[in-house]
Amino acid sequence: MPKSRIRKKADFTPPPASKQAATIKLTSRSWVAPVMLALFLIGLVWIVLFYVTEGELPIQSFGNWNIVAGFGFIAAGFGVSTQWK
Q1: What is the mean pLDDT of residues 55-83?
Q2: Which pLDDT does position 18 carry in this prediction?
Q3: Nearest partner of 58 among 11, 78, 68, judged by Cα
Q4: Which spans in 1-85 are helix H?
Q5: pLDDT tens digit string along 14-65?
Q6: What's the rounded Cα separation, in Å, for the pair 46 and 69?
Q7: Could you give the CA distance from residue 79 to residue 72 in angstroms, rounded to a whole number?
Q8: Which of 10, 63, 64, 69 holds its CA 20 to 30 A away from the CA of 1?
Q9: How far apart are CA 68 and CA 74, in angstroms?
């Protein structure tokens, strides 16, 4: 059986130095972290307050929907956290 030919690979040549890579500026928005933490805490306090007061607070007419409202604040905190860079 004949031996296959071995192809020589071309050596790596770096791109010319005349092109400079564009610098990407990743600045974090200063409002993201405080708003995110505030929404997490509001949601947590809302749910805890609902359970501790046995449904009397924060809004009695919401009934068990107070839990959904608390988790809504927490979900909004996660939504805001996507803006963090």
Answers
A1: 94
A2: 64
A3: 68
A4: 32-52, 65-81
A5: 777 765 556 666 666 889 999 999 999 999 999 999 999 998 888 899 999 9
A6: 8
A7: 10
A8: 10
A9: 10
* CA 61 to each of CA 23, 38, 56: distance values in angstroms, whole numbers, following the listed order: 54, 24, 9
* Residue at token pair 């749910």: 47
Using only C-alpha atoms, the chain has a radius of gyration, in whole angstroms, of 28
pLDDT exceeds cutoff 90 at 1: no
* Amino acid type, 81: S
pTM confidence score: 0.66
Helix (H, G, I), strand (E, B) or coil at 18: coil
In the structure encoding, which two tokens stand for residue 26, read together?
């990743």
Q: Using the structure block, give the residue that is written with the tokens 């690979």.
A: 9
* End-to-end CA, the chain: 60
Distance CA 41, CA 3 (A): 71
d(CA 20, CA 22): 6
